[in-house]
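User: I'm designing a mutation panel for SDR family oxidoreductase and want to avoid disrupting the core. Could you give me a predicted structure to guide residue selection? Please restate the sequence first so the numbering is unambiguous.

Assistant: Good idea. Sequence first, for numbering, then the predicted structure tokens:
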Amino acid sequence: MSKLISKVAVITGGNSGIGLGIAQEFKNEGAVGAIVGRNQETLASASAQLGDTFIAINADVTNLTDLERVFKETAEKFGKIDVIVANAGGGAIGTVADTTEADYDKAMDLNLKSVYFTVQKALPYMNDGGSIILIGSNAAHRAYSSFSLYGAAKAAVIYLAKGFSGDLLARKIRANVITPGTTDTPAFDKFVPAEQIEAVKKHYAGVMPIGRIGQPSDIGKTAVFLASDDSSFMLGAELLVDGGMTYLA
Ligand code: NDP
């Protein structure tokens, strides 16, 4: 039986990569709702792939007025909201020697502040008993050069799942976090010259304990579990979905 029948979900960054993978798995399980991003072209293409189940909302998750509009529009279209996926994030590469204050603010705005306020602005429209899913990263656990700001923000996101769950106990809204390892998305492609992408992916697959890099559907299926009643006893938890790369590679 479909696990998310009649659930209404909002997925930030649902127009690309992991977010789109989550939206596709949610759709397969009967959910409806909204995907949120800034790029009109990828929003339109994702929306076409999802049929009429998810509306596309053009908004910047670092802008609090935009976030208020996202949840108001979704609630007006579908009624109350059951599931929030704070997925939009990324970028923020640089060593401590060459990072500027502006780089710092940009990294934290996208990877931490936006997550906090996505949840805050969703709350007035969320059903009691709903599910909040945050997307962290295995970079919170493993040292990588040039990833200190990104990893620090993602480590804080892991705490937010616990803190939010504590704040929302009276409403029985559960917050949990998925920490993906290397996953095959357009973000991954951005760091590698086009002609080397296949070779680099092959190399990564070779060093991954499980023998392949992650796919957005791997994260999507985990998000279905956290959105569904199957995980009703889980709050403040982290699910590491990394093919073993964090602790076994
Ligand atoms: P993509 O670049 O494919 O997708 C990122 C998404 O976030 C896009 O849909 C983008 O849409 C959206 N986004 C970015 N900035 C904003 C903004 N200011 N406002 C609204 N939307 C925004 O990346 P991934 O799918 O790889 O990443 C998704 C999440 O997974 C991120 O949080 C990332 O840190 C995390 N992650 C990814 C891993 C990987 O290996 N791919 C590993 C671990 C974690 P638009 O450009 O239209 O705004």
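For picking mutation sites, this is relevant: The longest helix spans residues 101-122. The first strand starts at residue 8 and ends at 12.
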